[in-house]
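Memo to structure team: turn this sequence into structure tokens by end of day. - J.P.
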Amino acid sequence: MSPPRWSVVIPAFNEALRLTRYPEEVADFFAGRGEPYEVLVVDDGSTDRTAGVVEAAARAHRTVRLFRSEGNRGKGATVRQGMLAARGALRLLTDADGATPIAEVERLENALVSGADIAIGSRWLPHRGVSVNARRHRVAAGRLFNWIVARLGLGVIADSQCGFNAVTAAAARDLFPRLQTAGFGFDVELLLLSRAHGYRIVEVPVNWTDQAGSKTGVLKSGPRMLCEIVLTRLRIGRAA
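Reply from structure team:
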């Protein structure tokens, strides 16, 4: 069997409802491209039917695989597991809610093919061909969060939390073993590590539609994420 060109990593925690359709949407899209691919759903200790739903998708599509954790470790740990298990030359992280349509991967692919090591989807970069449908409070909260993160060392990245990012295999093999943030702040650690190790990051505008049932929120997750980011910034600064 040929090694996959694309690996798609989907972290999941209690996502049975949304995963009834998304892995198969991803599989159908890549199957239509006519190149080898794999879809890795990493179940982070779900207590609902997430595993069973993914197993059903795997029976329909042999390219879909399920990885399970014994307990709930956090999104960062889950993504790290998936990325290190992936075999693709190019590797996509996408959230289980499908807020960014899977076809948007072609925008990220263009950036990687043009020389980027990491391409991150962005909701906040203006672009004539992109539509973002988000509730006003989420837009305001997201912009505030990224403003704070920029001052903690991330720089000019407009949107670190879109949940739709692609990375080359070489960069993934180097960076993800270094990732220590277990929670939602892992996105920022990945970008800080990428900068520290000289990888080229390109931010790419993508279509995005707000989905109900988000596991994150400024009041719910923001303080912990900022704490994780501060600790990460200090740790990377000491290592530099």
